[in-house]
Amino acid sequence: MDVASLKDAVVKVIRSREQDFIAISHELFKHPETGLQEHRSSELLCKFLKREGFRVQYGLAGMETAFMASRGDTGPSIAILAEMDALPELGHACGHNIIAAAALGAATGLRAVLSNEDIRLTVLGTPAEEQGIGKIELIKAGYFDRIDFAMMVHPSSRRYITKAYLGLARLKFIFFGRPAHASAYPEEGINALDAVIQTFNAINALRQQTAQDVRIHGIITEGGTAPNIIPARAACSFYVRAMDLDRVHQTVKRVIACAQGAATAAGCEVEVVEDPRIMAPFRINAAFSELYAIQLQALGLQVDEVPVDRNCGSSDIGNVSQIVPTIHPHVPIGLGINIHSNTFAEASVSPKGDQAVLEGACALAMAAVELACDPECRQRITEEFRNS
Ligand SMILES: [Zn+2]
Ligand SMILES: [Zn+2]
């Protein structure tokens, strides 16, 4: 069969099984589980993939809910990533139920039309995206070493081919002072909360001297126990983001200096806790993105033309994109409905949400068919990756 007929065939298989994939999306939605607690979700996905003839391995890289379902002996090694974690209180307000269901749809279609000689296909269950853990741990444990191409979709308000993601570092400052009666013996106290407040003020001053893409945001996690006790301990945590990792590291240094200065001013000790898991910015591969765009055109779907660097968050898919050519396009579930809200959660199982599952499944599967069949296409993508 030629590429065009194979693509038609893969879409036909996915459409004929659409109720199965939509059911998976809804089932995940009904039982949302937060990062590393996705036991039921992971089991549901693994069982499905086993029934579809994949070799399934679960409990990877020290994460019980991470899994790898693979099939095929030769051909390019393509990974379709399935996120599955939900948010505390909000449930599937990031729509990861759609991501997992689309991944299963694409894998099911590919299994039906391509042989074990055409493609080495892996569905990777990547937990705890919201905490920026799953993919980073899987990379560390070598699960991406034998992957040539990585792909996934993410639901969004619009249809994007690519979107920038910022690098992100996480910091925590704990200040240690001395307690005292705030009215009777204030001169005996050392106020740790003062250091926290000064840290925020110093960072607010720093903002004037940061580049456009830098984002610094924090919360106070400990601020004392009672107004009449001078706080002996106070703490705050910050995220520092920027478009490239050098800038993230430079900004982190300055933010730490703000906290150290604040500690000196308040007479406190400060403990700086830096999370070793740094999220990398997303490395866009134009040739790979173009491959996905071609599939959308073939499906008759219009892409929303919006600047890629607007309204950016961060994701551990950024780390994957640094080591393997990756796409992370967005499937639309409702204009004006933004992620991490109750309305987004509801939309993830609406008719539009269900449509997004099928769009993601079909477009990913079609792109994978083309990758499997067209060595020139693979070369374009890997060459760009090597040279960028
Ligand atoms: Zn999210
Ligand atoms: Zn998400």
Write up this protein.
- The chain is an alpha/beta fold.
- It is 42% helix and 19% strand.
- The protein is built from twelve helices and twelve strands.
- A six-stranded mixed beta sheet has the order 1-2-4-3-5-11, with helices on both faces.
- A hairpin with a 2-residue loop joins strand 1 and strand 2 (63-71).
- The longest helix is centred in the C-terminal third of the chain and has 23 residues, at 351-373.
- One zinc ion binds at residues 94, 130, 339-340.
Structure summary:
By secondary structure, this protein is of the alpha/beta class.
Beta-strand percent range = 15-25%
Strand order within the widest beta sheet = 1-2-4-3-5-11
Low-confidence stretches: none
Shape: elongated
Which small compounds were modeled alongside the protein?
zinc ion
Distance between the termini: 34 Å
Q: How is the secondary structure organized here?
A:
Layout: H1 3-16, H2 18-30, H3 39-51, E1 55-60, E2 63-71, E3 77-83, H4 96-113, E4 120-126, H5 134-140, E5 149-151, E6 154-156, E7 167-176, H6 192-206, E8 215-222, E9 233-242, H7 245-266, E10 269-274, H8 286-298, H9 317-323, E11 326-327, E12 330-332, H10 342-347, H11 351-373, H12 375-387
Parallel strand pairs: 3-4, 3-5, 5-11, 6-12
Antiparallel strand pairs: 1-2, 2-4, 7-9, 7-10, 8-9
Helix pairs in contact: 1-4, 1-11, 2-4, 4-11, 6-7, 8-11, 8-12
Bound molecules: zinc ion (ZN) (2 copies).
Residues 94, 96, 129, 154 line the site of one zinc ion (ZN).
